[in-house]
């Protein structure tokens, strides 16, 4: 590859993005490192905790990125997106939890911040590049003029679920250097290249320490009742944002030998609804703004079979997707609106959570489309 082709790499300070940059340098690209600055010290998050996406450890991560760039001999820039992160990710996160839904900030952050504002703001600052690359474990494939995401070769590390919202036109200018590698291979190659972050542990938390409380300091959630499916009060909860569908720990109640789980959240009445494990299973779901990667597929959505995921660590389940007249929400990004769909699983799935995303895959791993879950279809329980 000619050195006249420039690739900007999103650097996070971890081994994945570091090796992605190193592989691109090896391939002959001119490489620029870019990091999002999203922390501005506005929240009382304890320092010295295990690193996460958001928290006071950001300065250390930026220092690691600077060292990576120096080791590879590439230019490096930090792009301040703290205001955009507050408005697009944190406000979304708070609003969804207050509405009794389970948000997925990683999907919003990737779509709007990392592959959106970071790229656009870098270009606006005069940083010129032809492609953008990340250390995500995912591949892409073009068919009939449409660029699809495709699951990674290492399915145990696949991150396509988080990226389903990227439009085909944007994907055409994106590279995923780790898509064919396993995590072990990434660490071994990073060690061979003497990258200091080769053995740096992964961080899975959204907020440092995994405690969301500081994000609600300005409007603390109100305590309320914990009830069973008949409405009987069993105890008190400390605020809706601290409870998610399927949760068992931290309820502080027991009414017999059978464990209780969070089955639903009733935001208008500020209630957490609990019950036995069998109440967590749903035969399907509704999404009112489902978007296909190939817009032409919307015309065949009367009945479409595939494999569906309802969260990142969910095993894809056989399902059928059908168009449904449940209302069509307007798009929030200038793109064509999605369609309302009903998804029916071949086998009932556990803990389908409104606010999370449903992503539909083909049998050979293409991401066909996705949308936010608006309602679980439960045979025995409706919150």
For the secondary structure, the number of strands is: 18
Mean pLDDT: 89
Radius of gyration (CA) equals 22 Å
The percent of residues in helical segments reads 10-25%
CATH architectural designation of one domain: 3-Layer(aba) Sandwich
Report the uncertain regions: 326-336
What's the order of the H and E elements?
A: EHEHEHHEEEHEHEEEEEEEEEEE
Widest sheet: strand ordering: 12-15-14-13-16-17
Distance between the termini: 56 Å
CATH topology of one domain: the name is Rossmann fold
What percent of residues are in strands? 25-35%
Count up the helices.
6
What does this structure look like?
The protein has 383 residues and is α/β, with parallel strands linked by helices. Among the domains are: 6-135 and 177-210, Rossmann fold (3-Layer(aba) Sandwich), CATH 3.40.50; 221-275, Adenine nucleotide alpha hydrolases-like domains (SH3 type barrels), CATH 2.30.30. Helices cover 20% and strands 28% of the residues. The chain has six helices and 18 strands. It has helices at 15-26, 58-72, 82-98, 105-124, 168-171, 183-192; strands spanning 6-10, 30-37, 75-80, 131-133, 138-143, 146-151, 174-175, 224-227, 233-237, 261-266, 271-275, 281-292, 304-309, 317-323, 339-350, 357-361, 367-372, 375-377. The strands form four sheets. The chain has a six-stranded antiparallel barrel. Strand 8 (224-227) and strand 9 form a beta hairpin. The radius of gyration is 22 Å and the shape is globular. The chain starts with 5 loop residues before the first strand and ends in a 6-residue tail after the last strand. Mean pLDDT is 89; it is low at 326-336.
């Amino acid at each position: 590859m000619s050195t006249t082709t420039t690739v900007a790499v999103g650097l996070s300070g971890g081994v994945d993005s570091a090796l992605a940059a190193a592989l691109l340098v090896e391939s002959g690209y001119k490489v620029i490192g870019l990091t999002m600055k999203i922390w501005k010290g506005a929240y009382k998050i304890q320092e010295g905790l295990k690193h996460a996406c958001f928290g006071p450890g950001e300065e250390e991560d930026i220092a690691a990125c600077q060292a990576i760039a120096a080791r590879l001999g590439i230019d490096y820039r930090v792009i301040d997106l703290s205001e955009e992160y507050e408005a697009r990710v944190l406000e979304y996160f708070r609003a969804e939890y207050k509405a009794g839904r389970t948000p997925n900030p990683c999907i919003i952050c990737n779509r709007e911040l990392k592959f959106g504002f970071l790229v656009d703001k870098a270009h606006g600052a005069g940083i010129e590049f032809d492609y953008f690359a990340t250390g995500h474990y995912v591949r892409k494939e073009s068919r009939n003029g449409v660029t699809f995401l495709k699951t990674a070769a290492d399915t145990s590390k696949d991150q396509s679920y988080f990226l389903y919202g990227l439009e085909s036109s944007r994907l055409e200018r994106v590279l995923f250097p780790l898509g064919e590698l396993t995590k072990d291979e990434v660490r071994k190659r990073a060690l061979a290249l003497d990258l200091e972050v080769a053995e740096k542990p992964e961080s899975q938390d959204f907020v440092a320490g995994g405690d969301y409380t500081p994000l609600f300091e300005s409007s603390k959630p109100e305590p309320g009742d914990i009830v069973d499916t008949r409405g009987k009060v069993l105890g008190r909860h400390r605020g809706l944002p601290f409870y998610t569908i399927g949760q068992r720990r931290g309820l502080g109640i027991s009414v017999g030998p059978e464990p209780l789980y969070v089955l639903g959240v009733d935001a208008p009445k500020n209630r957490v609804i609990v019950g036995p494990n069998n109440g967590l299973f749903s035969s399907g779901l509704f999404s009112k703004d489902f978007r296909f990667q190939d817009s032409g597929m919307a015309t065949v959505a009367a009945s479409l079979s595939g494999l569906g995921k309802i969260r990142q660590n969910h095993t894809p389940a056989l399902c059928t997707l059908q168009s449904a007249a449940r209302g069509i929400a307007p798009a929030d990004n200038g793109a064509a609106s999605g369609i309302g769909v009903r998804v029916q699983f071949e086998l009932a799935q556990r803990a389908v959570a409104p606010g999370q995303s449903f992503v539909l895959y083909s049998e050979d791993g293409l991401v066909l489309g996705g949308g936010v879950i608006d309602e679980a279809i439960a045979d025995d329980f409706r919150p």
